Amino acid sequence: MPTPYSTVRITLFCLANALLIMSAACSNGKYRSGEVSSSADQTSSVDSAKMNAEKNILLHVHRIAKKSKADVDAYLGSPSYHETITPSNAPCPCEKYIYKDGNLEVVFMSGKADWITVNHMYSVDYNSHAILEALAIHYAEPFMNNERVIKWNDFDGFDELSVFSDGKEKASYAFLKAITH
Predict the structure, then answer these.
(1) N or C: which terminal CB in the chain sees fewer CB atoms within 10 Å?
(2) What is the rounded distance in angstroms from the CA atom of residue 44 to the CA atom of residue 48?
(3) pTM of whole model > 0.85?
(4) Average model confidence (pLDDT) for the chain?
């Protein structure tokens, strides 16, 4: 039969272990401000963060850039317009398609979605973080940033991105060159 002294020792030992475990968890960020959160709460906050991030995305550029027409159509649906174009300094004639009621233009060069124009970006703040988030592109510092245009070169697998201002602190449109200079 345990003595009162051994019961106190066991209780103190259990309390010390519990404090060590809580201390380690606090340093790992699992507990904040004395609150204990369950894994369900953590999953819920992760899901909520993902949903909020998705709300800010206009287009997942990586899902169409450098992809075939079939892949682009599978993601965006059927185009509403098509024409053959011959821009200078490009390996063309090339096929240009309009998607999403004129909000998106895609020029295919050598069978791949290369030049992508995202029009009507007026819901996006004119700053590099908001713009790249709206296009689901990893953040990179632009090489040019002024009141009219923000530009990136050779980043996140793309050749160039230029985003133009509407003059009222919102983005107007983006022009991405995925492959061709």
Answers:
(1) N
(2) 6
(3) no
(4) 78
